[in-house]
Amino acid sequence: MKIKKISFVFLAATIFSLVSALTVAHVYAQTFIYMSPAEIIVPSCEEFTVDVNVEGVVDLYAWEIWMCFDPALMECISVVEGPFLQLAGTTFHFEIIDDTAGTIKAFGVVVPAVSGVSGSGTLANVTFHCSGPGESILDMFHTTLLNGSAELIWECLGDANGDLAVNIVDMSLVAAAYGASDGDPRYDPNVDFDSNSFVDVTDVLTVALNYGKHCPGDLPFLSPINNVVSHSTINAHVTQTPETPVGGVWTPVPILELLAPWIAVALLGVAAITAGARRFLMRQ
To answer: pLDDT of 186-240, one tens digit each?
Structure first.
């Protein structure tokens, strides 16, 4: 019976160690867009930055993120493109920050779109300034990941200004109308290449796929088709405290993650002491 008890202690310690490791390591089995850190505690009237990351994406050509926050508690300072998409080549990045409404619209696209990037990394770094104590969700309510799947057609797609060439002028025009729908003063039907009455990252990618091409003639142009990468999103939560925490910014960690390694060591120690005591008693 004693041998069984000792084996049980060793087994419990081993299982707890494995569970602890899984608790600390966040593993994503599919494609995710998430913010890091997910839980932020920051003193009022200070700045903090969250990374918008992608996990496990394949052949990424373009991304789009819409985010909302509580404008009564914070304001967005900047949205800086991260290094991940730039692994595929030169990129074009654009954002619209509305601190009155508490919204952010941003995209990044490879220009020219000659190859995608796969793996995991940071899409953007978003910096906020806190204005008072309270809590706010950083909610990514509209996210898009696009790969390079496209079909050949015989229209001059991507030429927004009618000069028979697709270049940076066209990219600037689609960026200027980005996020606008039919009826919005910024809406431009000439950059709504898929005619869905909305200017979004698909229209941006249309320019990127055809960047450098010239009309007229029988040169085939590319139109994105069935190229949305399926993914999930994980939001972040911000708590703004009236006092300044030690170290500037707090990132809460579950107590189990802090104590798990020590508990595992303690269990192994108890198992070793029990085994030693048993051998000592058997010698008596």
So the answer is: 999 999 999 999 999 999 999 999 999 998 877 899 999 999 999 999 999 999 8
Nearest CA-CA partner of 29 in 232, 227, 229, 236 = 232
Structural domains of the chain, count: 2
Q: 86 and 49 in one domain?
A: yes
In one-letter notation, the amino acid at residue 86 is Q
Q: Which domain holds residue 7?
A: 2-22+256-283
pTM: 0.74
250 and 114 in one domain? yes
Tokens of 268: 């192994």
The residues of the chain scoring below 50 in pLDDT are: 1-6, 8-29, 245-253
Same domain, 124 and 227: yes
Nearest 5°: CA angle at 228, between 187 and 158?
A: 45
Quick check: 159 and 215 in contact, CB under 8 A?
Answer: yes
How many other CB atoms sit within 10 Å of the CB of residue 164? 12
| CA–CA distance, 144 with 111 (Å, rounded to integer) | 17
Determine the pLDDT at residue 61: 97
Are 64 and 150 in the same domain? yes
